[in-house]
Amino acid sequence: MAERIKGITVEIGGDTVGLDKALKGVNQTSRSLQSELKDVQRLLKFDPNNAELMAQKQNLLNDQIENTNKKLKQLKEAEAQVQAQFEKGDIKEEQYRAFQRELQDTQQFLRHTENALADLKDEQDEVGNNTKQLNQLFQTQNKTLEDYADVLGNRLVRSIQNGTASSRDLQKAFRLVGKDALGASVDVDEIRQALNKLDSGEASIKEIRKELQKL
Fold this sequence. Notes:
9 helices; two-stranded antiparallel ribbon; 2 strands; 4% strand; mainly alpha
């Protein structure tokens, strides 16, 4: 927060300027990006896997990481000067502590944003993998999603058809389809392991179909 570092003057890029003013641009950009992210996140609550909104969220998080790195670089450039000013008595101890808090806050915010981006990418990867395996399972049974509408329920079927199903939704669908097709006692993980052989080229659909029947 800019209020923390008012009254601290440093030299950045050859210009002597108040640190709060030097960071004004990146702070404004950060607030604008956060406002957009909140709006996108609000809409995603109603449509969790909307492709356009997910793309916007990823772009905004990338922009926020870039902007926060820029701010962190400026704070790091000023750190030695602020330390020297404190040691000479040019700034008060509370100003020095406030600068350190600003530095820590920026580092924590960067980590938080990077984690949010990583979580988003993990969810997208999970959705892709679960969708692929669900389709492979349909293929081994010579059936389609619509054939399991009674098992899955209309809401889940529609969300899969519309591409709005979450990774958790798809995992639920895989479990329900697997147990309906192969029996309630079947181990879902064993089904996944069998299907993985399709990706590696170890087995054909026909061979996997036989393996699943043995399960």
